[in-house]
């Protein structure tokens, strides 16, 4: 029979919520429903099923049987009749699939679905549910054909056909191309394969499903590293033989997340290389997901694990600041000093900082030369002055007061409060370039506008949080109680969870008494990395989070950069033709 291509998505995950079956359930305690279909041989389009046979088993004991012919509502090809012995006359009085599905779905509830060449059978069942309005329960699926490919060698069986495996395991029922007989034969094959899994250290249903998939020898050899880990929020650290951290990650369920590294769903080459070098996994339990995310960031920054790509070097952040002197200019620097009063950042790369600087240079007449200018000595002007793109302070053609008003003050205003003049100037240039059909130059200007807005919006959001000496917030915990966070100057100073049914105030008092002492400082991120403060902001801004206490008000400038978020989104999406109308 023709087999339609079908992707079995449910095999990719190990979430206990899928099908209601815990992947850690031992195989001997797992309820399996072994199913086989007979069809008209077409593609899974919601019909075509002529017979369903299903057997429910657990611990080697048969619990139930479901078998029925199904009227497919279409003629049966002659070669199907020859193959299965099912005739058109046999199917005329049979119920249609929409009448069979309710009983079948109830039969497979809270069980692992097993089939030989499962994608084919599951594909027909899912298509039938979709066509007739039934919700597919998305059970865990175990494919005996795939499992046989992993367990049996070519020396033992020449192929993995059901008939061949039935002969090898000497099943009590032989396959006959009838649904119930084939399902019963598959039950015996399943039990035979499970008996072979013990030597591969496969004891649970989740392990069996993943073992059936194509995992690498390294994943199979190192999968014991995932044993014994807690099923709680926290951070996990893969360590080498010399105890060096190789990779740091976070999850709301450490055990499930680490186990996923040893499944076929993990295909990243660098992770495969990391697993080969890993010798143990260390778990750091956390109160809730926010604490786990923050601890992950701090561990990555402290150890720079070779197989982590992001968050490794927070000290490499860059700033765009206005220099001192009578004719200040923009300078990209690594650090801010307490005397710096006009700056923008932090930027994650020099390219991002240069793009924002180019945006300001397009909007206001800031000088771009790096000379140290004197109020007494004239310096020869550069080409930008000749092109009219610089007011030539080097030749004293503009007074320091006029220069500050025209060039420096707009930068200070844009970064500290309102970027409207800069935005208007850039939008006006985009309009001119678009009208002249200079679309490539307009796109460049649009990317500079996006860089300016992205940086100003980010910095003002950070500054609003980090200016608060202490903030306490709570969020309902999934299992009752409250997740609590104590934030000082944008840094997570303490975290905890109050028990269900208990007032959270005593827990918060304990957290405050044991929290980290955090001193403020200069700039929008005085006590933590920008990424940590942004993670905290994301947690605080969720609808379910409640602000409990604050040492001062949490506010942003009324005319600040935040009101340009829609314009930023359009600029980032490349909608330059819509930008000219977005002035506020």
UniProtKB/TrEMBL annotation:
<dbReference type="InterPro" id="IPR006054">
    <property type="entry name" value="DnaQ"/>
</dbReference>
<keyword id="KW-0378">Hydrolase</keyword>
<dbReference type="GO" id="GO:0004527">
    <property type="term" value="F:exonuclease activity"/>
</dbReference>
<dbReference type="InterPro" id="IPR050066">
    <property type="entry name" value="UvrABC_protein_C"/>
</dbReference>
<dbReference type="InterPro" id="IPR036397">
    <property type="entry name" value="RNaseH_sf"/>
</dbReference>
<dbReference type="InterPro" id="IPR047296">
    <property type="entry name" value="GIY-YIG_UvrC_Cho"/>
</dbReference>
<dbReference type="Pfam" id="PF01541">
    <property type="entry name" value="GIY-YIG"/>
</dbReference>
<dbReference type="InterPro" id="IPR013520">
    <property type="entry name" value="Ribonucl_H"/>
</dbReference>
<dbReference type="Pfam" id="PF00929">
    <property type="entry name" value="RNase_T"/>
</dbReference>
<keyword id="KW-0269">Exonuclease</keyword>
<dbReference type="InterPro" id="IPR012337">
    <property type="entry name" value="RNaseH-like_sf"/>
</dbReference>
<feature type="domain" description="GIY-YIG">
    <location>
        <begin position="231"/>
        <end position="309"/>
    </location>
</feature>
<protein>
    <submittedName>
        <fullName>DEDD exonuclease domain-containing protein</fullName>
    </submittedName>
</protein>
<keyword id="KW-0540">Nuclease</keyword>
<dbReference type="InterPro" id="IPR000305">
    <property type="entry name" value="GIY-YIG_endonuc"/>
</dbReference>
<dbReference type="InterPro" id="IPR035901">
    <property type="entry name" value="GIY-YIG_endonuc_sf"/>
</dbReference>
